[in-house]
């Protein structure tokens, strides 16, 4: 006769015969666990390498945002040099700008983008084009803002005018 549980519903009889796992079953379980362990180890190793790379990159380019802030100051200094009519003021601002550029270069920041260079979309941002039959195609004819590299990273593209025939 079946026993009734708390709710008054008949519960089936429990059988006392439990199947013992065979050697093959145990080998499959061990193989599965070894595979899981190997995958977790590889996943953790990839995670560790990715984090090391990210940290290395952060440390290598730690001054990037600081330098970007000062590039706007350098741009304003250049605009001031172009706008002042008094030669003495221009010379003083030019000296400050040269010193500023030397300090940036000592920290690994180098300007690029000159009139006469070939246009490279990896380095330059063409704001507009001009037509001059005397100048070859894809030659930079004017610079609005110089581009800058910090170590091997481009932190600002040069804004230029390019010649197109």
Describe the 3D structure.
The protein has helices spanning 23-60, 64-83, 87-106, and strands at 109-112, 124-130, 140-145, 147-150, 153-156, 158-163. By secondary structure, the chain is an alpha+beta fold. The chain has 2 domains: 26-60; 64-163, Head domain of nucleotide exchange factor GrpE (Nucleotide Exchange Factor Grpe, Chain A, domain 2). Strand 4 and strand 5 form a beta hairpin. Helix 2 (64-83) runs antiparallel to helix 3.
In short:
With 165 residues, the chain is α+β, with helices and mostly antiparallel strands. The chain has three helices and six strands. Helix 2 packs antiparallel against helix 3 (87-106).
**Strand line-up of the largest beta sheet:** 1-4-5
What's the CATH class of the largest domain, please? Mainly Beta
Alpha-beta classification: alpha+beta
Q: State the major sheet.
A: 3 strands, antiparallel
Please state the second-level CATH architecture of the largest domain: Roll
Q: Assign the CATH superfamily of the largest domain.
A: Head domain of nucleotide exchange factor GrpE
Sheet-strand content, in percent, reads 15-25%
Unreliable residue runs? none
The succession of helices and strands, N to C, reads HHHEEEEEE
**What is the multimeric organization of the chains shown?**
single chain
